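Hi F.,

I've been meaning to write this up properly since the lab meeting, where we talked about keeping a consistent format for the predictions we share between groups. The idea is simple: the sequence comes first, exactly as it goes in, then the structure tokens exactly as they come out, then a line or two of notes. No screenshots and no reformatting. I'm using this chain as the first example so we have something concrete to point to.
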Amino acid sequence: MNGFTVGCWAPKIPEFAERLQLTKFELGLMILVFGLGSLVMMPMAGAQIAGRGSKIVVKAFAVLLLPMLLALTVTQNVWTAAIALFLFGGFIGAMDVAMNANAVSVEKSMHRAIMSSCHAFWSLGGLIGSAIGGFLISRWGVLGHAEVSTALALLFLAVAWPMILGDQPHPDEAKPKARLPMIPLPWLLGMMALFCMIPEGAVLDWSALYLGQEKGASVTLSGFGFAAFSLTMATMRFAGDFVRDRLGAVKTLRVCTVFAIVGMLLAALAPNAELAIVGFALCGIGISNMVPIAFSAAGNIPGLQPGIGISVVTTMGYSGMLVAPSAIGFAAEHVGFSPVLMALPVLLLVVLALSSLARYADGIGGGSH
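Output, unedited:
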């Protein structure tokens, strides 16, 4: 439901910018507001998870998220749109922290890796949302698209509602552990998540505009950039837990990072929209298991409560979606999208350098770290 809602937002972005008459840089600033909402509400979610457990937190933010696509569709001026985007980003991000904390609890209860599969369903939602978005907008307009999307999101939530694992809150641990951790490990894992999520945010926020404006793609075809990215990401995430159990988290992360670098370079250098979409698809294969591994590692840091570790890593990861959109928009206005996309693999090289930290993700179920 969360991924689907984000996927539905991706094809709406060009119309959103046109309705509010935003330049690329101004649109980047608006997407910055989305990231700010996430950064404000994510630590709040981490604290609530410590006190109440992740089940009640994820349900509450899922309900709050439901009307946001409609709100983003009916806003007619920059200020109301900014408020709607702030809340949209906040509810998406807070729900994300709670979902990942719940997934760590499920991993520990099952004594095996399931984080990649959980993220696969997020990507599957993103695929469905972005793939049907362009079609629905061209057929029924933006309001019809928002209404159908909200109804489908409600359906997904209704199916998941009774099945969410009830984990135990740790109110006694919430106060002493709620301060920022002083050990470097969660911050380094957070940097890995940050550098993985900047390319993911670039594909989400800018692929439709890049394909439409620089590669001459139609409205429907431009939605396929993020759709192809989500398709390969979902497929590889369903396989990710199996691969991780066989190869270990470190080797899996290294192979994935190489795929992501090659895919992003192909998308940047492609002579046409179709080849750029293939590049985004290869990038999806790469990014697929990088973020789940970082989150699993964050939830298994020795001596640190999972909710706090995940909150740090998720907040830092999402700060990539805070800084990147406005910077990419500003740069693209001056040099175009291709050179910007060519620069993103530099960040992935840093992830490659830090890849040995992924070994903590193999310490699932209270085993050795």
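Notes:
The CA atoms of residues 224 and 242 lie 28 Å apart.
The chain has a mean pLDDT of 84.

If this format works for you, I'll send the rest the same way.

G.
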